[in-house]
Design brief:
Layout (H helix, E strand, L loop, with lengths): L3 E6 L5 E2 L15 E5 L1 H7 L2 H5 L31 E3 L1 H7 L4 E5 L9 H14 L4 E5 L3 H10 L5 E7 L4 H9 L3 E5 L3 H15 L2 E2 L8 H5 L1 H9 L7 E5 L4 H15 L8 E7 L4 H8 L23 H10 L3 E5 L1 H15 L9 H10 L9 E5 L7 H6 L11 H10 L4
Parallel strand pairs: 5-13, 6-7, 6-9, 7-8, 10-11, 10-13, 11-12
Antiparallel strand pairs: 1-2, 1-3, 4-5
The structure holds pyridoxal-5'-phosphate and zinc ion.
The site of pyridoxal-5'-phosphate (PLP) has 19 residues, from helix 10.
Length: 411
């Protein structure tokens, strides 16, 4: 692929040809990032071309993705999710210029579809027969969904604790599901060993350099949907750190292509006991393992697999990190729903991070803020039910109904 210049190690800087490695740096084991021939791309991808492009999916950005053609991509719509102005929610937070990017609207109901689509397209080009991933649930559900009708076997490793709706997705889409008695980190290591032993193609976050390429498309969309204006801040929930580093790469690339003039600040939102990236960012030290325990399963990570890139994204954007408690995460779910009509899963409750940042005086009232909603609330209803009351239950009888409505002051 002529448009790709190098796979460059984010740790030691070593360049690799596309044919030289499928995964990490072959000198230091660091994560790789794809760098393109931006002068070449500039000729094909610019404001004029995008403005007239009717494609409503991530493939409108094919010129800057590591895929040769859209002949061989999953046949469902990934990306081009809505960006809403959230007036009521914004007023409640004291941030009138608030926007919601609803990535729960993807085929498998999470942001992970952006990465899985690109990695699956890549696997098809490489003629891989078996694709595998370790996941807390969403990356797996996404991969299972996007490969379902393709001529490819999909083997999934998830922790035993993955929420039932995500497991249901895996089974419905026909993946081979291996539940590991352990954490996400345990599932990750086992998936790596299986990849080595059986020669499968591994989509896992922080291993496969192409996941970030899919994830960056969200930033391209935000720029277009905001009419080529850059928001002041983008709030992103962080586990492994691949989404936030992808979001950053997207803005940087559009800036480099001259499509936008300004870069946003990124705010990482982490759960209080799964805050490894926040700690590394604030201390300036290495990314160290933490307990990872949180109700927000999608951001429950002991050792972030793309932590270094995440720290660089926060730092380079001039942003910051906040951590939130499980109680704050749960509390944010009905608030987001009632303030913006969007049902978010716990890990997607970036609103909790916004409230904290506002309280700490780190967001100014006149700033434009985008909250990334990375997964749909139906992904984990057990958690959502903890944050709301119970329904009324009565017999089908009008007298009983009258009594209920009067007693509870509902009329
Ligand atoms: C995976 C995921 C995240 C976190 O992304 P990382 O790349 O692991 O930081 C956040 N929210 C949802 C819903 C996810 O599925
Ligand atoms: Zn290296």
């Amino acid at each position: 692929m002529k448009k790709i210049k190098t796979l460059q190690c984010i740790r030691c800087g070593k360049d690799h040809k596309l044919t030289e490695t499928k995964y990490n740096c072959n000198a230091c084991g660091g994560n790789l990032q794809v760098l393109y021939d931006y002068n070449l791309i500039k000729k094909r991808l610019n404001y004029e071309v995008l403005k007239d492009n009717p494609e409503r999916s991530i493939w409108r950005y094919l010129d800057i993705l590591p895929v040769s053609s859209i002949k061989n991509v999953p046949p469902v719509q990934v990306g081009w999710t809505p960006l809403y102005r959230a007036e009521k929610l914004g007023a409640e937070a004291g941030v009138p210029n608030l926007f919601i990017k609803d990535d729960g609207r993807n085929p498998s109901a999470s942001f992970k579809d952006r990465a899985s689509a690109v990695v699956t397209a890549r696997a098809l080009e490489l003629k891989e027969k078996v694709i595998t991933t370790a996941s807390t649930g969403n990356a797996a559900a996404s991969l299972a969904c996007l490969t379902a009708s393709l001529n490819m076997k999909t083997v999934i490793f998830v922790p035993e604790t993955a929420p039932a709706p995500k497991v249901a997705q895996l089974l419905v889409f026909g993946a081979t599901v291996i539940m590991v008695k352990g954490t996400y980190d345990d599932a990750f290591e086992l998936c790596l060993k299986a990849t080595d032993e059986y020669g499968w193609y591994n989509r896992s976050t922080g291993i496969n350099p192409f996941t970030r390429e899919g994830k960056k498309t969200c930033s391209f969309e935000i720029c277009e949907q905001m009419n080529w204006e850059t928001p002041d801040k983008v709030f992103v929930s962080v586990g492994d750190g691949n989404i936030i580093s992808g979001i950053w790469k997207g803005f940087v690339e559009f800036h480099r292509l001259g499509i936008i003039e300004r870069l946003p600040q990124l705010v990482a939102v982490q759960a209080e006991h799964s805050d490894s990236v926040k700690r590394a960012f604030e201390s300036g030290g290495d990314v160290q393992p933490v307990s990872g325990a949180t109700i927000a399963d999608s951001i429950s990570v002991s050792l972030p697999r793309d932590g270094m890139a995440a720290v660089m994204a926060i730092r380079d954007s001039g942003g910051f990190a906040v951590s939130v408690t499980d109680a704050e995460i749960l509390d944010a779910i009905p608030r987001i729903a009632r303030g913006s009509n969007v049902f978010a899963e716990p890990a997607a409750a970036t609103y909790a991070g916004l409230l904290k940042a506002v309280k700490e005086g780190r967001v100014k009232e006149n700033e434009s803020v985008v909250l990334l909603i990375s997964g749909n609330g139906l992904k984990d209803i057990q958690s959502a039910m903890q944050s709301v009351g119970k329904p009324y239950v009565i017999r089908p009888d009008i007298i009983e109904l009258r009594k209920l409505l009067t007693e509870n002051k509902l009329v």
